Amino acid sequence: MSKILIIGHLNPDTDSITSAISLSYLQNKLGKNTEAVALGKPNEETQYALNYFKTEAPRVISRASDETKEVMLVDHNEFQQAVSDISELTVLAVIDHHRIANFQTINPLYYRAEPVGCTQTIILKLYKEHGIEIPPHIAGLMLSGIISDTLLFKSPTCTDEDIKAAQELATIAGVDLNDYGMELLKAGTNLSGKSAVELISLDAKSFEVNDKKIRVAQVNTVDFNDIFSRKEEIINAINEEISSNHYNLFLFVATNVLDSDSRIIALGDSYLSAERAFNIHLTENEGFLKGVVSRKKQIIPQLTVALSEETVSQ
Ligand code: MN
Ligand code: MN
Question: Which domains does the chain have, with CATH numbers?
Answer without folding.
Answer: 4-187 (3.90.1640.10), 196-313 (3.10.310.20)
